[in-house]
Prior knowledge:
Keywords (chain C): Membrane, Transmembrane, Transmembrane helix
CATH topology of the largest domain in chain B: Fumarate Reductase Iron-sulfur Protein, Chain B, domain 2
Strand order of the largest sheet of chain B: 2-1-5-3-4
Oligomer: heterotrimer
Number of domains of chain B: 2
Radius of gyration of chain A: 24 Å
Number of helices of chain B: 8
CATH class of the domain at 266-400 in chain A: Alpha Beta
Largest interface: A-B, 81 and 80 residues
Transmembrane segments (chain C): 57-78, 99-120, 140-169, 189-214
Largest sheet of chain B: 5 strands, mixed
Helix content of chain B: 25-40%
InterPro entries (chain C): Cytochrome_b-558 (IPR011138), SQR/QFR_C/D (IPR034804)
Order of helices and strands of chain B: EEHEEEEEHHHHHHH
GO cellular component, one term (chain C): membrane
CATH architecture of the largest domain in chain B: Orthogonal Bundle
Strand order of the largest sheet of chain A: 5-2-1-9-17
Strand content of chain A: 5-15%
Distance between the termini of chain A: 40 Å
Structural class of chain A: alpha+beta
Protein name (chain C): Succinate dehydrogenase
Largest sheet of chain A: 5 strands, parallel
Amino acid sequence: MKLDAKIPQGSLEDKWSNYKKTARLVNPANRKKLDVIVIGTGLAGSSIAASLGEMGYNVKSFCFQDTPRRAHSVAAQGGVNAAKNYKNDGDSIYRMFVDTLKGGDFRAREANVYRLAECSVNLIDQAVAQGVPFGREYGGYLNNRSFGGVQVSRTFYARGQTGQQLLLGTYQALMRQVDKKTVKLYSSHEMLDLVTIDGKARGVIVRNLETGEIERHAAHAVVLATGGFGKIYYLSTLAMGCNGSAIWRAHKKGAFFASPSWTQIHPTSLPQSGGYQSKLTLMSESLRNDGRIWVPKKADDNRVANDIPEEERDYYLERRYPAFGNLAPRDISSRAAKERIDAGHGVGALKNAVYLDFSKAIREQGQAKIAEKYGNLFTMYEKITGINAYKEPMMISPAAHFSMGGLWVDYELMTTIPGLFALGEANFADHGANRLGANSLLQASVDGYFIAPYTIANYLADQIRVGAIASDDPAFDKAEKEVKDKLDALLAIKGTKTVDYFHKSLGKLLYDYCGLARTKEGLEYAIVEIKKLRDEFYKDVKIPGDSKTMNAELEKAGRVADYLEIGVLMCYDALTREESCGAHFREEYQTEDGEAKRNDEDYQFISAWEWPGSLDAEPILNKEELKFEFVKPTIRSYK
Amino acid sequence: MKLHLKIWRQKDRKSEGKLVDYTLENVNTHMSFLEMLDTLNEELILKDEQPVEFDHDCREGICGQCGVVINGNAHGPLKNTTTCQLHMREFKDGETILIEPFRAAGFPIKKDLKVDRSAFDRIISSGGYVSVNTGQAPEANTIPVSHEVAEAAFDSAACLGCGACVATCKNGSAALFTAAKITQLAILPQSKEERKQRALRMIVQMDEEGFGHCSNTEACEVECPQGISVLNIARMNYEYNRASFLKFKKK
Amino acid sequence: MNTLSRKIIMAATGLFLCFFLLIHFLGNTQLFLEPEHARLSFNAYSHFLTGNPLVKMVSYVLYASIIGHAIYALLITAKNKAAGGSYKKDNRGRASKWYSRNMGVLGTIVLIFIVLHFQNFWYVYKFGEIGLDTNGNKDLYAVVVAAFQELWLVVVYVIAMIALCYHLIHGITSGVRTLGLFHPKYVRWVNIVGVVYSVVICVGFAAMPLFIYFTNSK
């Protein structure tokens, strides 16, 4: 299938305004006759639901959490980027565009990335107006901090809880619409399938997680803003409930899945301490502004950090990447850490961590200043580890974090299923092969506030003629039956192993073979092993209870069943991309000094995978060629 | 280490609940409290028993979804800490731990340790926002906010919505939750316009949800994971009195 | 009426009663004077209070405050009992002061005391048989001295004053907050002043029966 990204005409600067000028509109009186379903209430989901509600559409908003405010956007710590150039340090929309494109290793669309940078300035305005308490200078103006992968300070922040504050702003906007009855809220509801009628997205099947009831909801358009699926690695920085099920079920109904293997492994998470562990807590990347990363020069050094003299410490990021030092982008920092850990320089009980040291910053700026900037992170670190990081360095290690991949969308954020939109982390669009720090909050918000309201209206413009969508259409019957059968089938297995056993096994396979570094042999092996694991899952998983009541194990089982399918696709994706780019590092394709070697000649495209109709068939690869008209791809160097 | 657990089991909203005893061997002190419950559930499933339902999501102390009462304290023995950030090193080998759901008239129990906190959503929905539509915002720096005001607003805005304040209040009062939002929005210049109506509406909604009065015992501040100050409640009272007075004057 | 309004009534009546206590206390310090001087001065003061129409009006406000404070306390407590959760194991008390959680109990003690106190003096003064002093005023002083010859009554008064003291310490802080004082600096000052005020008043009141008991006991 030929993929058309529908990039508007014109110069880079004019594309988005040209689009908006010519996009079709819906008459205000007609909007309340148009139904839109939004799945997910993170930054992208809440903001699009609120925005559409404000415009007068009839919106239904769903989330699996007990309230929209828990969506995992809440956990983003460091900040949100915007090209305001308040610091007068040479920032501009164009520079932010180049940084993001380069940070993504030239595996994203120019037009999308430029639009992201262009809309970034509006987002800050919007958030401030909503009462988001961003950090301020003493004069009352907004403050910025710097972040990995760039040489300007363009990151806006609310202490170490920027995601929480932005999400609460959006959540409040959403709740305002709930009060006005333009949005109907369905908390504790999980989407289990997408319903398509005549090839168009027309509704969803959801399960009420408290009562177990299966419900049908019909609409003229469906928006998936369900976040990333990095939890597929089991150990990750994501919330326990984060999942890929909504986008995966949409994929199986015809939506293409782009670059599933591009997962950002975050360099500054807390290391694993034992097999019982359920998640890896993230420490904000902003810590790298003042913290210095090092390992002992001597391998297997068992001295405590403070006993290792300065000259025996290897500040490997500063050594390898003098221009960016500790602020090198995430993929590079993570890989550098893995390289040192694999070489035997890891620290901590399991020798799986590196030090993040604040002693120099505390000496230079004083403890009070450091506490003001990162106080809550230091407190959190002490709560989890029992270690006071003002006195000794933190121990950090890489952890699965962000899915650059997701549903393939065109410039309008519409998937290959007409009427099905994917926003935020659930789509693949703007980050290329690696996301820059503080760009995820930005992308999710910009998609929801400033892009989708125009593009969804453009789609809905001719839907007014369709009339209300009936939820008794045979397509709904079929989808509902499939969902119920699947739940019953899972419950009927009654095997001997818990869902978590399978999730942990899958996660280990993916970390080892489709994680920070990949090889052809490893990926081929993983595909076979994951398929075996999947077979075992359907023979031997044990799920207690029934589907008619609240059943957390059943919820998990459904998600892991999907993960077992996504995992295979990830491996195919990584296997067929015979180059290294961004977070995707194929060991076969590296320079002599161990840097990623991109192959623009053969792989300057997005891999958009098509569901082959069955699990036994190989997934079908479609390519969207990337054209770089305005910026010439360069070798990404942070040295 | 070995633990004796007494956990509140309740089938659904209507059923009566009771404490059930469990014994858990080989608990690692580095485990988080929720990982200890995971371990218990794993054992229960393999023994063909129903696992314990409990709320949790981010497990890093920010989403506000987790929350149980442990040995009579909301979020357990540590002050200003969420349940997910509590680790087993805080308990002794052989200790008996009592685990109950958050209890208050405003928080009906859904199942086992899960409670319905949607009352908080309705309180926010009644006025805990700024009435600004997407696209209406002026350039951000046209609204200067002093460093102190921004920091104070943040202190109030940091609330997770976990409900520990309600669970720990002898009156089941949601004053701290409601007050934190009223205060944040009352002190920021961009949200001052609606402060009168906001305070009146949110307080009415808070009452409708069946929460009790604030007795200013200040227990909520101590157990709040974010340490939200009780002075927010005083500020809410001020906002309410101010709004009532202005309303009266207008009449 | 919503929860905040009810609390405002509690705060307003409570703080008015606190203020009344100060006046009452200042008047009663005359009991510490040398006995014959105390008798005349105290009796004259009592006479002034019963005769003055303004004082009479204030006294009605006072009765209304006591009754209102008690009724609203009942309403509020009933609602709170219904709204709050009860736990199989409850260690929530670690996070707050015992007296802040037991204002109802302390208040009940104080209320019982007030009834007793009225019966001891107010009722006797108004309706009882009472002699006159050399100035022709009713000799309330003699009633007071006679009453505090009873050790049990002295003990009851002292206990009541302890209860009142804790009731006031929390009540003043809480009442001022309910009325909306939120500035951290002033709140801190009010807390200090509130504690000093409560202790001084209650120790002073408790000292009166003790003083009379010990100076007059044979």
